[in-house]
From TrEMBL:
The protein, known as: GNAT family N-acetyltransferase
InterPro entries found in the cross-reference section: Acyl_CoA_acyltransferase, GNAT_dom
Lineage, opening ranks: Bacteria, Bacillati, Actinomycetota, Actinomycetes, Micrococcales
Residue ranges constituting the N-acetyltransferase domain according to the UniProt record: 25-180, 194-366
Source organism (scientific name): Agrococcus citreus
Residue ranges that the Swiss-Prot or TrEMBL entry lists as coiled coil: none
Lineage top rank: taxon: Bacteria
Gene3D superfamilies, per database record: 3.40.630.30
Amino acid sequence: MHRLAPIAERAAAPTTLPSITAGGLHWRSATVDDAQAVVDLANTMYEADGAPYRETIDEARADLAAPWRHLETDSLLGFDDAGELRVTAMIEVPPGDESTVRTYCFGGVHPERRGEGIGREVLAWQLARARQILAASGKDLPARIGVFAEDDDPESRHRMYAHAGLEPRRFYANLKRPLDDDASLPHVELTGSLRLVPWSEELDDAARLAHNDAFRDHWGSEPQTMEQWTNGRSEFAPEWSFVVVDDAPDVEALLADPRTDAATAEALRAGAPLVAGYALNSRYAADFPVRGYSFGYTDVLGTRRAYRGRKAALAALAASMRAFADDGMAAAVLDVDTENPSGAHGLYASLGYVKEHGSRMYSIEL
């Protein structure tokens, strides 16, 4: 196996960050109190770009207040002479990374101030700061700097990312499944000691452990800490969410299975419930007018690797779709990595999900 150079060497972090002079703006770090201005600018940009979503003040506040955020050093806001917010730049560092240490850059420029070179300089600042963060992490692991874009974002944005050395690395499909025909919704029978139950706070950590296990072999996925798992749930719909528990797990076999992670093993020894599959969903009502229909959105869906083939995730998803329909939603919506190793894309197609939008991740791999 090729031995990586120390991350401090690979990151090639600059000693000082590049200045942002384009646009003649006034710059400072963000605070949680900026949530309203940040969300207003975000939605102005989304509308101009034809994005199929909008952000709420609760989502923006939760994002800015996430306990792993370091806004003082990892964010910038650009204001014009009238004090109006015109640019946002954020860098996120997920706290639970174990196999790849990651940084993600978010933000944008008000449509009226585009074409002045501000975006290029802001992106250069973000990439330089991301390199500093990676170098200081002390994690001698593979590293990534990533940004996301909708496939139909302005072409100038895609060119800007490519010019900065970011390469399109992963592609995602946003899928829709109409719910106008109750008879077509799937019925799933679970076998053995598997049982479908509504999501509850008591099962939330067990669902997190199941998620970490389910996505352990997915590209770009890292274990989520409990603070990550529960952060940003302002639109979470517990009444639409379901888990599948194993009432009589083979604890000895699971403990002997090399695929069983340490956190799950500890929970099994403690007699904690074992979640085999899960579907956690949200109600993004602010998106309904943009898309022209109401929908339930599946944020996370998966099955533990030892339980694949036993329809645990399918049962949770089917229950979710029925809950959406019972509440009058017109459709079920979710996103999937087009190269998902579990064959999820084919499963969704068989259930009637059809692609509506696409997005991608650009990255620099270090």
